[in-house]
Design brief:
single chain, mainly beta, Jelly Rolls, 6-stranded antiparallel β-sheet, 1 helix
Length: about 180
């Protein structure tokens, strides 16, 4: 089984990011779904030249006592102001208590043709082992506009996943033990 840590609050200032309805508050509500909903998203007008990251607190998950199966998934697209075919890029980071513990090694190029693309970033063993608290995770998305197209960049889905926590070990002989005290 798998545990999912989905955005459950905004973390700090969100720069010029807004929800598709135009509000700059409670952005997490637009990207916290358990399944894709591309009608609900956050966006950044890159012509504002404010490439501040959007950072989100996540729901708590239990330490899986394993460094395998950890990943960050996000879904994005971009458009451009001048009709070109390239758009913005997105870089994901995983934080614990506001400090970066892992950075995606690849800045993902978001499609600029109006289509959404889902990106999965599997954490390395070293990155997963750097997570000191699964109850204090944040995910950061930092946009960039490498070709200065000055369009918009959008994100509709974001979450962290890891394996379920290990079940407690059973008694050595497999039988239950009860103790009654006479007081």
């Amino acid at each position: 089984m798998t545990q999912y840590a989905r955005p459950d609050d905004d973390y700090g200032s969100q720069g010029e990011w807004v929800k598709n309805g135009g509000s700059g508050s409670d952005l997490y509500q637009a990207i916290d779904e358990s399944s894709v909903d591309d009608t609900d998203y956050i966006q950044l007008d890159m012509s504002m030249e404010d490439f501040s990251p959007a950072v989100f607190e996540t729901s708590n998950v239990t330490d899986p006592s394993s460094s395998s199966g950890h990943k960050v998934t996000f879904r994005c697209k971009a458009d451009e102001a001048d009709g070109e075919t390239s758009g913005g890029s997105m870089l994901a980071k995983l934080l614990v208590g506001g400090s970066v513990v892992a950075t995606n090694g690849t800045t993902e190029e978001c499609p600029a043709d109006g289509s959404w693309e889902t990106f999965e970033w599997p954490l390395s063993t070293a990155q997963a082992n750097a997570i000191s608290s699964y109850s204090n995770l944040q995910i950061s998305l930092t946009p960039s506009d490498p070709e200065s197209m000055m369009g918009n960049i959008y994100c509709s889905w974001l979450f962290f996943e890891c394996p379920d926590a290990a079940a407690p070990a059973a008694a050595a002989n497999g039988s239950a033990f009860m103790l009654f005290l006479d007081t």
